[in-house]
Amino acid sequence: MTDLVPDYARNIRLIGQSDQGGRSDVVQLVVHRGFAYIGQFMPEGFSIVDVRDPHRPGPAVFIPAPPSTWNNHLQTHDDLLFLVHAKNLFVDPAFADEHAYYGRAVGDTLAVSTPSHSARLERRPRRL
Fold first, then answer.
1. 3-state SS class at 125
2. Quick one: pLDDT band at residue 121, thresholds 50, 70, 90?
3. Is 12 within a domain?
């Protein structure tokens, strides 16, 4: 493989690449024991790539997330992979307009509000 040159990096030399089976987005990347675990939003799942030979990464294996969720966080420990299946907010009709996501708190948009600690304290009956 010829040397790949990153567009916006200094003192970095790319030695290999993977197109992750055509899934180009990456939210989080964890390399553990020779395998890259790649959390992804848009294909709603995560990929695993064999990187034991970093010059020639193996093909990607894609694991889909449950419906309407995405994998925005993953972590490894020993032989365990911890994975978050979070609600994919952009398939929720409340977020059909992207301004609903960026314009106010997600909980307000979803009509899920958790009272603040001080509000809970105010609701306690006062003892005389």
1. coil
2. very low
3. no
